[in-house]
């Protein structure tokens, strides 16, 4: 599996410090991006947490996910959470080592009492002594929060006091990109009040290990609660591997409500879903892949945008208009850039492959952050996209008739790609027969879309590459429906990704 080493350099370990004013949570930052450019140890906030106990528990939940592997729990992960300051909130994000669970804590303005919140993205150190100290935070004592060093002048000529070098698999970056595409196709499916939320989450099985995490069930909202069901009836939400919600147990005594998000139309097989616990001034959300053996990294939701010839240039234009906004308005970006909303969404999806875009299901809006990855890295290492480019360069694609039918010749095999009037594609290949579009387009459909765009075809659907994944998320995003589709997976049970 391809991966790159990334160094986290901190001035000192994060810690809970005690002084006359009470405990002080000092979260140390690594190198990060800010409006002024790259900064070695940026400072984003200093002030008090309005509700210390739930904030401490929620931070621990995010750290739990960062340290977990749900599919192969015997292997430990060690990925420091990411913090983004959006001017009016702090977002703490993490991904499980198996790429199947994405966690985000949004500490909103109501949850913070202090100076101005900065703008930028960095990693924060979460170590074992800090975790132990956070478990001792009581509800009655004030908790001061500092995100970033108190004084940058403590840096010495010997360099940082603490340095971590960790491998970052390509699947981890691709998982961040796919998660925002998948979540953009979710709708709010259920909202439970505090008592029912606690009852439901405490009733879930725990400690099931690898087999339990792979179990996919369904729940349906009934009278203010969630009832299990054996099949995806209308209105049902998939709960793929209830063990993977274990991190929410930390915050149950502080929960105000539970919100559940999922695709508007459930399919025949397991789908991704998002589970949000509402806390005082905060939201803690876990997004689950359709199965623990299916990390988000191969869901295929970004492929349409990556395959378009205009998306790269559009992404460069859109990127200069972003400024760590907590809400990215597609219509406003379209007006500023002169692009259509469809091209703006494709550009945002492409920026997501470099870790620059996330999606907030609670607000049905994208947000800006900037992970420390090279643009285009995920694209270059996507096997289906590479295979599609190879087919185009080899002249393997022939458009037939009006372009709704195409023939793709691979060695001595012939595959036929058909596009219906609604722009939906199908293919005769084994990939399509197995996943039915649930993991995005196959390499043949991608190649056909590239050729159609190159020829200037007006045919909708995969002829525009990105629209083959069109759907109807709450923000009108077209990229998410297939990624949250009913069938498919990103990794095989042996942990290797199948190639289309």
TrEMBL record:
Membrane keyword on record: no
Disordered: region residues: 456-500
Domain SWIM-type: 415-453
Species of provenance: Kitasatospora aburaviensis
Database matches in Pfam families: SWIM (PF04434)
Keyword Nucleus recorded: no
The protein, known as: SWIM zinc finger family protein
Domain of life of the source: Bacteria
Compositional bias per record (Low complexity), positions renumbered to this chain: 456-485
Keywords: Metal-binding, Zinc, Zinc-finger
